[in-house]
Amino acid sequence: MATKLILTGRVQGVFCRAYCSRYAQKRRIRGSASNLSDGSVKVLLDTSDMELVNKFIADIKRNPDGLMFYGRIESVDVDEYAGSISGDYQF
After folding, report:
1. Sign of CA dihedral 64, 26, 39, 81
2. How many beta carbons lie within 10 A of that of residue 72, not counting itself?
3. What are the pLDDT digits (tens) for 38-72?
4. pTM of the predicted structure, to 2 decimals
Protein backbone atom coordinates (compact mmCIF):
# COMPACT_ATOMS: atom_id res chain seq x y z
CA MET A 1 0.00 0.00 0.00
CA ALA A 2 1.17 3.50 -0.79
CA THR A 3 0.27 6.97 0.50
CA LYS A 4 -1.23 9.87 -1.47
CA LEU A 5 -0.65 13.45 -0.41
CA ILE A 6 -2.43 16.48 -1.88
CA LEU A 7 -0.48 19.68 -1.28
CA THR A 8 -2.29 22.99 -1.47
CA GLY A 9 -1.03 26.53 -1.28
CA ARG A 10 1.39 28.15 -3.68
CA VAL A 11 2.73 24.86 -5.02
CA GLN A 12 2.84 25.09 -8.83
CA GLY A 13 5.58 26.84 -10.77
CA VAL A 14 7.77 27.12 -7.66
CA PHE A 15 9.91 23.92 -7.84
CA CYS A 16 7.53 22.00 -5.54
CA ARG A 17 7.83 18.67 -7.35
CA ALA A 18 11.64 18.76 -7.31
CA TYR A 19 11.58 19.96 -3.70
CA CYS A 20 9.39 17.02 -2.65
CA SER A 21 11.65 14.67 -4.61
CA ARG A 22 14.73 15.84 -2.71
CA TYR A 23 13.14 15.28 0.70
CA ALA A 24 11.73 11.91 -0.38
CA GLN A 25 15.18 10.84 -1.56
CA LYS A 26 16.64 11.98 1.77
CA ARG A 27 14.13 9.68 3.51
CA ARG A 28 14.73 6.91 0.91
CA ILE A 29 11.15 6.98 -0.31
CA ARG A 30 10.32 6.30 -3.95
CA GLY A 31 7.36 8.02 -5.53
CA SER A 32 6.10 10.67 -7.89
CA ALA A 33 4.67 14.19 -7.94
CA SER A 34 2.19 15.70 -10.38
CA ASN A 35 0.60 19.09 -10.86
CA LEU A 36 -3.20 18.89 -10.76
CA SER A 37 -5.59 21.09 -12.73
CA ASP A 38 -6.93 22.76 -9.56
CA GLY A 39 -3.48 24.20 -8.71
CA SER A 40 -2.56 21.57 -6.13
CA VAL A 41 0.20 18.96 -6.29
CA LYS A 42 -0.35 15.22 -5.84
CA VAL A 43 2.53 13.33 -4.26
CA LEU A 44 2.49 9.53 -4.24
CA LEU A 45 4.84 7.89 -1.76
CA ASP A 46 5.65 4.20 -2.11
CA THR A 47 5.24 3.52 1.62
CA SER A 48 2.45 3.01 4.12
CA ASP A 49 4.80 3.66 7.08
CA MET A 50 3.00 6.63 8.66
CA GLU A 51 5.97 7.53 10.84
CA LEU A 52 8.07 7.94 7.69
CA VAL A 53 5.26 9.81 5.90
CA ASN A 54 4.90 12.19 8.85
CA LYS A 55 8.65 12.88 8.85
CA PHE A 56 8.46 13.63 5.11
CA ILE A 57 5.52 16.00 5.68
CA ALA A 58 7.39 17.76 8.48
CA ASP A 59 10.40 18.16 6.15
CA ILE A 60 8.41 19.70 3.30
CA LYS A 61 6.55 22.03 5.65
CA ARG A 62 9.64 23.26 7.57
CA ASN A 63 12.38 22.89 4.92
CA PRO A 64 15.12 22.14 7.49
CA ASP A 65 17.80 21.77 4.79
CA GLY A 66 16.99 25.15 3.21
CA LEU A 67 16.32 23.66 -0.22
CA MET A 68 15.29 25.88 -3.12
CA PHE A 69 11.50 26.28 -2.95
CA TYR A 70 9.73 29.50 -3.84
CA GLY A 71 6.26 28.45 -2.74
CA ARG A 72 4.29 27.76 0.38
CA ILE A 73 2.53 24.57 1.44
CA GLU A 74 -0.61 25.54 3.33
CA SER A 75 -2.16 22.10 3.81
CA VAL A 76 -1.42 18.43 3.22
CA ASP A 77 -4.24 15.92 2.85
CA VAL A 78 -3.16 12.31 3.45
CA ASP A 79 -4.91 9.17 2.14
CA GLU A 80 -4.05 5.55 1.51
CA TYR A 81 -3.37 4.78 -2.14
CA ALA A 82 -3.63 1.39 -3.86
CA GLY A 83 -2.82 2.30 -7.48
CA SER A 84 0.44 2.36 -9.36
CA ILE A 85 3.03 4.99 -8.52
CA SER A 86 3.00 7.17 -11.60
CA GLY A 87 3.14 10.84 -12.33
CA ASP A 88 4.98 13.41 -14.38
CA TYR A 89 7.87 13.74 -11.89
CA GLN A 90 9.26 10.38 -10.73
CA PHE A 91 11.68 9.93 -7.86
Report:
1. negative
2. 12
3. 999 999 999 999 999 999 999 999 999 999 999 99
4. 0.95
Beta bridge partners of 60: none
Q: Give every CB contact of residue 65 below 8 A, 6+ residues apart in sequence.
A: 22, 23, 26, 59
Alpha-carbon span 65 to 4, nearest angstrom: 23
Residue 16: CB atoms within 10 A of its CB come to 25
Is 3.30.70.100 the CATH number for 2-79?
Answer: yes
First-last CA distance in the chain: 17
Give, for 78, the enclosing helix (H) or strand (E): strand 72-81
Q: How far apart are CA 24 and CA 59, in angstroms?
A: 9
Per domain, the residue ranges of the chain are: 2-79
